[in-house]
Amino acid sequence: MGLQQGLVTWFAGVLFLSTLLLSCADVHHYEFFVRESNFTKLCNTTTLLVVNDSYPGPEIRVHRCDTVFVNVHNQGNYGFTIHWHGVKQPRNPWSDGPEFVTQCPIQPGTNFTYEIVLSDEIGTLWWHAHSDWTRGSVHGAFIILPAKKETYPFPTPDADQTVILESWYDGDYKQIIDDALAAGVSPRQPNAYAINGHVGDTYGCPNDTIFRMQVDSEKIYLLRIINAAMNEHFFFTIANHTLTVVAQDASYVRRFTRDYILISPGQTMDVLVSANRNVGQYYMAIRPFSDSSAAPVDNITTGIFQYTNSEGGLNASLITLPVMTDTDAMINFLDQIRNTNVSQNPGINVPADKDIKTRAFIAIAVNNLPCNTCVLGTRLVASLNNVSFVSPRIDILQAYYNRNMSGVFTEDFPLNPPVFYNFTGDLTNFNTPIEEGTRVIVVNYGEGVEMVLQATQMGAGGSHPIHLHGFSFYWVGTGFGNFNNETDPSTYNLVDPPLINTVHVPGRRWVAIRFFATNPGVWFMHCHLERHSSWGMDTVLIVRNGKTKKTSIRPPPSTMPRCPGT
């Protein structure tokens, strides 16, 4: 990035945030007590690790550019961390949360206070554990309201409602993945899907509860939808009602209306719905989407959109959702998402070709490695550019910042696949060598970065929701088949690309993202299908410090959890 472009980028960001800071920047404090509690669903009682005895956990509700302190008390039996998904944490990777990337786990009987620094995020985000599979039960909403005196760029809703979509397992989430990794096989499927902790009325247990959203006729509601599922993309609908998407991943989008949405694990969407039908009760429902040969269980989970003073049964008992394998419904929905040039969004600032200093072409795959102790003699692993990420025992941020620890990571993640092949073709008898390691990408502060994420048919193929910590990035391109670096960049949308933190990479397709590396720190990048991340479909982006204090990582807090053995 040239000096002039860098100054423009910096000034625009400072001006936007300075305007916000004139009317906000309150400080909030929360206490999270994480311990085991019993929950009964599907006519079975299960012990889960949860926050403040609730599933899902407590909601954080603040205003744009506020600061939040969350004191996390570990009263459970094993260590964990918590991540504030979608919060960029400018210059503050110490509170980002991924285990052994930016911190070591909070050990049982100890506590740690996270400082969550908001900037331009607006709308719906969420928080979740970032250790093993603990996030399956340790998660909740993070709602960011407009700053004081700031308005919505759409009709002001009469009320809002958080809707968290979940995977329900009868069993301890950590134990489920530990057992699968030891055997070298895929973890088992969930027993049900849930909406705000309720599994609805489709699973056959008479004691199960159903989520009910009470609404008044002719009122407008803002649904804050979060996909907290472990491995499932979801279609979502409300019978006989239309859904108007207004935001994704805490950034406003150009409004569009559908009778369903598609939301991937890790993503959030803000959706307007008008209670403008006959007074009554209407199903809301979710079902999984899959374009993979390792498909999830095709269950439908229900809730109720219930008008005040409605009596009797459901007005619309027929649930209309795309079938689980409807790739046209997936593509048609994703194609609608565009940025919107409203004053409540930061100005659109997509790196131009001349700004790009680091280009990465990343092939996403699931592979096998030999394993003498595993059930089948091999174990499942996953990779980015043939590197399967290995989590160290000392966090990467500490090793990078202190510069006095060797052997924790290497700065040689390959920016291209070591072998080029027909990524989206028939790969039944094809295999490529896989290396395991803690290999990271390093870029300079302020430079433009482009990443092309290529889905492959290695393993079961299918879609991948790729999440980058510390940034919102522009989703500038997508296409079918193998990416062509000579012709496909001409199709990029550099005018109004969505600004998101988790991108859906469809099976047999590619996506391209761009961003300016203006957040110094150590930032995790991974697939938000939890089994894939557990198998190594991860890497780390390190952004070097700039030349000033304001463009450098903040010093660490003195209370960081100690790493095992240190």
From TrEMBL:
Q: Where mainly located?
A: secreted
Catalysed reaction(s) here are: 4 hydroquinone + O2 = 4 benzosemiquinone + 2 H2O
Q: Where is the Plastocyanin-like domain?
A: 34-147, 161-309, 413-546
UniProt keywords, alphabetically: Apoplast, Copper, Glycoprotein, Lignin degradation, Metal-binding, Oxidoreductase, Repeat, Secreted, Signal
- Name the InterPro entries on file: Cu-oxidase-like_N, Cu-oxidase_2nd, Cu-oxidase_C, Cu-oxidase_fam, Cu_oxidase_Cu_BS, Cupredoxin, CuRO_1_LCC, CuRO_2_LCC
Q: Which GO terms describe its biological process?
A: lignin catabolic process
- Provide the cofactor list for this protein: Cu cation
- Transmembrane segment boundaries: none
One of the Pfam families matching this protein, by short name: Cu-oxidase
Signal peptide extent: 1-25
Q: Which GO terms describe its cellular component?
A: apoplast
Q: What name has this protein been given in UniProt?
A: Laccase
